[in-house]
User: Which sequence fits this backbone?
């Protein structure tokens, strides 16, 4: 689950990835959910980073090269934009590619570079409040946002397990764990 910051405050952001078609050389990405230009670019970067990580973690898995994927961000009638869902998009794609569930009660936010670095985001307080409303217990933020988090009132932060990351590989371990079992 991702976290968003809008004019109305914070909200949770679901990112779904489904397999559309599979066959040698069919690798492609379809995007829906009224995504703005920045979010579309973020999805393309996420696809590239997910491919690189899968190659690193499972070198014999041809999933991305041979799979047309559909990435959707509900609610489809609501326009969305911004780069901070990049890490959530990568996680959604890798979950499908590796057939592994993401840990429950986990939310994340962070812009991702082509090399997997996690960049800072805005709306830390609003995103934490949205996570609490959705009963999220663990949140992943960019390391560059640690100061924003530290400046928040204790009652906003209490009861949450918060991780600060610099690189997507750190998110991978938090989201999937090192011993995660494949989905059945």
Assistant:
């Amino acid at each position: 689950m991702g976290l968003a910051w809008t004019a109305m405050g914070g909200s949770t952001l679901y990112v779904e990835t489904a397999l559309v078609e599979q066959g040698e050389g069919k690798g492609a990405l379809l995007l829906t959910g009224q995504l703005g230009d920045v979010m579309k670019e973020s999805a393309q970067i996420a696809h590239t980073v997910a491919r690189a990580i899968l190659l690193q973690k499972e070198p014999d898995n041809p999933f991305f090269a041979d799979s047309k994927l559909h990435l959707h961000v509900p609610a489809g009638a609501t326009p969305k934009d911004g780069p901070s869902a990049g890490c959530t998009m990568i996680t959604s794609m890798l979950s499908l590619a590796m057939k592994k569930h993401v840990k429950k009660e986990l939310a994340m936010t962070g812009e991702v570079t082509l090399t997997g670095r996690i960049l800072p985001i805005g709306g830390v307080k609003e995103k934490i409040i949205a996570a609490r409303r959705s009963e999220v217990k663990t949140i992943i933020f960019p390391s560059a946002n640690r100061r924003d988090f530290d400046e928040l009132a204790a009652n906003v932060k209490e009861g949450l397990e918060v991780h600060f990351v610099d690189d997507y590989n750190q998110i991978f371990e938090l989201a999937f764990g090192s011993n995660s079992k494949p989905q059945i």
In short: The helical segments are 37-57, 86-98, 124-133, 146-150, 154-157, 168-176.
